[in-house]
Structure of Iron hydrogenase small subunit domain-containing protein:
Amino acid sequence: MSLPWNSRALTGIPKKMSEVNIGKRKEKCENCSKQQCSKKQSNEGPSSLQEKANGEVSESLPVQPVLLSSCLSCEGCLSEEESQRISQQNLQEVKRVLSLNKQCDASKHKVLVVSVCPQSLPFFAVKFCLGIPEATQKLCGFLKSLGVHHVFDTTLAAGFSILESQREFVQRYRRRHHDSHALPMFTSSCPGWIRYAERVLGSLVTPHICSAKSPQQVMGSLVKDFFTRQQKLTPDKVFHVVVAPCFDKKLEAVREEFYNSLLDSRDVDCVLTSGEIFQMMQEKKVNVDELDSVPLDHVFGETDDAGLVRHEGRGSEGLLEHVFKNAAKELFGLEVDEIVYKTLRNRDFQEVSLERDGETLLQFAAVYGFRNIQTLVHRMRKGRVPYQLVEVLSCPGGCLSGRGQVESEGGRVDRALTQQMEEAYSSLPVRLPEMNPEIQRLYQDWLEGQDSPRALQALHTQYSQQQQQPQTLPPDIQW
């Protein structure tokens, strides 16, 4: 029997993220050997997001309670304009849109759409003491009670990201002998990793990054393109919010390539972490038992009561496992039923191999956390990376361990909460994106085929070196 909301232990999310994150970042920065970094903190220091590249402090930007203080890519790379955009991604901005929708001036009304990442759903399941399907309907009921018009989950978008990554890997593998940048291929769903690659590693890595958009940004394309046309709306009339486990997703949402200047519209207008939604529920003293159970919506305009599913993999989108099995079949005609991981340095640095007659045909790696990423980069500089694909995530433990939902009052990862979320997530049934008829329907109805220019625009992007960086990393750099 579930307990009333305000009688439950509200562990895992501090009331003010900045209370723990500034101190945590200060400790990290004190151990960092980077000399040119605007995130360096003094004892009295202001929020790093107020500092310009030249070290001057901008008086125009107020201190924000939640920005990139949990960003794991410790690189002073935010421009003042980016800082301002990210500062607008908070609960107050969503409340502002909801307030405008209640006013009489219909010209300022917007259709409010919320897309929830699958890795956020176990968080609410644990907090609500419910299974994921039941918790999802309670979450949907809460959001709609606020005035949200449509609530989706992003599993469908993740399916597109997986399928496009599979196809790109096969293409890269087949041109590996005449294209030095074809392999290894690095995954592209983690914005902390992408930022680090673009701003620090540059041309060493960026040509190797998979061009498939992350599930968040595929969902942005799906909502602001297909769904708006279904609803006979223009993209600027939709305010799209994504609920994610990670603060870095805010940074991804403000990238220039995801902005339509003609319509002044972003694919994702605002990213809120699971913890921020939970904070809103705390503020409103919500009793979960009294919330209506409302099923998720569907981008086709239908009610999605088919049941929640997940993709393969431990707490993330399972890109490595999906690409590995597909490549084994497409390239070598081998069916792989189960993947066996070999742990190397730790649980967050693992590899998997495909062998036939004593020959290694494929060798992939899963590398989570910046300590392991640093090891990978050092090996790459020395030409000692044997992998054809590397799934890279900046959060140790993967997306379920995003700091937007597992950070405790002391700034540490709540391991008990993480374990509960992993158990809840693994309880969902697995569905291969290839077996999803809705994806095939969207390829035809929305994208005009898999290889069409429309599909390329909606599902892919490009990454490149964004500023000149030193060619070598200091040997004592700490993450």
Q: What stands out?
A: The first helix runs from residue 17 to 30. The first strand starts at residue 111 and ends at 116. The mean pLDDT is 79.
